[in-house]
Specification:
With about 500 residues, the chain is of the alpha/beta class. It has 17 helices and 21 strands. α3 (about 55-65) packs across α4 (about 85-110). The two termini are about 40 Å apart.
């Protein structure tokens, strides 16, 4: 553990960069970023952008043509949910998404770039996903300016809003009191499916690529490069540093503030104008900075329910669905249960679910939820004992079974007793609830429920239209965050 202030004392102060400076350059290029989000929580840092949970060509045509406040979006999120898939399935899904995005872009006359959005604590299918995107671009001859190649994979896991920062090439999570813990020493690094040991990003690349890329071959863009001179001077320096990138060479980046990410955006833009082609493998706030979007204030109740009134807002309670098992989620669930005494709590017992009688157990859960929604809010959570094995594939299959049960509960509830709102806690949980539980195909992410974290989606069409959907990552927020978000939405809290 180390103090953040001690680490930062070695580096220059951040360089202020107006979001508008980046936005103007993005507008000049006319490019749309297609963000392959391996779970839906990547939207928590952005606002007013389309989200797709299906990726047929016509879905991309809708997204490219859709206008928000009269403007085409500079980025589109595609909910791939690949963190819940095995490697072969994840690769196939990435390939399908990129191929269809390119086909629709050609038909729509839109230039596109690609972002592989993943976890700020380094869990996910790396390097498989950026490798698959690069191979698909090569097969389609669709790299930068049609070159059909990728020079570099830009790796930026930093998520300062959630306490994840990269300093001196080492990725940390904030632990309170100004202290930082290398992410390789946290519970996230012990993930049953995506575990790792290295906190240094160049070493992480070597570990995960199984030596294909040695740590010494990774290009490092550190805070000295990002924070020296004016924004324009830093952009040129970054572009110069990236000249050596070719053949999908990994590029890891320091970032502690939004200004660091905006300077990086200017440098990447300069490098791409020189002809370089990149795929981005990033945490949530990168896209916001890369397209020059201002940091949106958290939504308030009047924005969530703009036409609130007796006839406008359902009389039923809201549905809070908790699937994540990380420590912070369990503490948040405990705090919500303690404070929201009027809410009914219904547990999906995982041991019963995995047993032969799981079907009858779900029938009972659905009946309890429907009855309780007529009176107020309902908290549905999986039992807190995490059942897993030493086999990554078997652990993933258990997670899928549990998620399918959560989806069934939400979908059957939606059809019988539409709730006032839905909160889904956990990455895989929120993905499956969106795409299958609520049957959302297209949505607009409206903004954050808490500063920089926890996004609200507005479903476009389908059975969930008009129901605010809150995507809440398992590993963000403090112990009170789930209660704080529920309080904004609830009529009985």
């Amino acid at each position: 553990m180390v103090l953040e202030s001690d680490l930062l004392s070695r580096f220059p102060a951040e360089v202020p960069v107006p979001a508008a400076m980046v936005a103007q350059r993005v507008t000049d290029t006319g490019r749309v970023l297609v963000v392959l989000d391996d779970d839906p929580t990547g939207t928590q840092s952005v606002s007013n952008l389309p989200v797709l949970t299906r990726w047929d060509v016509e879905d991309f045509r809708w997204a490219y043509a859709h206008r928000i406040d009269g403007q085409r979006a500079n980025a589109i999120y595609v909910l791939t949910n690949t963190r819940s898939l095995d490697p072969a399935e994840a690769s196939e899904r990435n390939r399908d998404v990129v191929s269809n995005a390119l086909a629709a872009a050609s038909q729509s006359g839109v230039a596109v770039g690609f972002v592989s959005r993943s976890d700020s604590t380094l869990r996910g299918h790396y390097p498989l996903e950026p490798n698959t995107i690069a191979a698909t671009l090569l097969a389609n001859g669709a790299g930068h300016n049609g070159a059909g190649h990728v020079d570099g994979v830009v790796i930026v896991p930093a998520f300062p809003d959630a306490g994840r920062v990269t300093i001196g090439g080492v990725h940390y999570t904030r632990a309170g009191g100004g202290a930082l813990v290398p992410v390789g020493e946290t519970e996230f690094a012990k993930d049953a499916t995506f575990g790792y040991t290295s906190s240094r990003l160049d070493s992480y690349v070597e570990e995960k690529s199984q030596g294909r890329f040695a740590a010494a071959d990774v290009i490092v863009v550190d805070l000295f490069l990002l924070r020296t001179g004016t924004p324009a001077e830093a952009a040129v320096a970054i572009a110069n540093a990236l000249e050596a990138a070719q053949d999908s060479r990994p590029i890891v980046v320091d970032a502690v503030t939004e200004n660091d990410l905006r300077v990086l955006a200017l440098g990447l833009d300069e490098a791409e104008r020189r002809g370089k082609s990149f795929i981005y493998r990033v945490g949530p706030p990168f896209v916001r900075a890369r397209i020059g979007q201002e940091i949106r204030d958290e939504l308030d109740t009047t924005e969530i329910f703009p036409d609130a009134g007796p006839a406008a807002v359902p009389a039923t309670g809201g549905l809070i669905v908790v699937g994540s098992h990380v420590g912070v989620t369990t503490r948040q669930l405990a705090a919500l249960s303690e404070q929201h005494r009027s809410a009914k709590t219904v547990e999906i017992n995982v041991e019963e679910l995995l047993a032969a009688q799981g079907g009858s157990h779900l029938d009972d859960v659905v009946a309890q939820v429907g009855a309780a929604l007529a009176e107020g809010d309902v908290i549905v959570h999986t039992s807190r004992l995490l059942i897993k094995t030493d086999d990554a594939a078997a652990s993933l299959e258990i997670a899928r079974t549990v998620s399918a049960a959560v989806v069934q509960v939400v979908n059957r509830t939606l059809k019988a007793t539409p709730p006032r709102f839905v909160i889904a806690k956990g990455g895989i949980t929120s993905s499956d609830v969106a795409a299958h539980g609520l049957e959302i195909r297209h949505a607009i992410v409206r903004g954050p429920m808490l500063p920089g974290i926890v996004s609200l989606w507005e479903p476009v069409g389908g059975p969930a239209a008009g129901i605010p959907y809150i995507v809440f990552a398992g590993n963000v927020g403090d112990d009170q965050s789930l209660a704080d978000v529920t309080r904004k939405l609830s009529s009985t809290f």
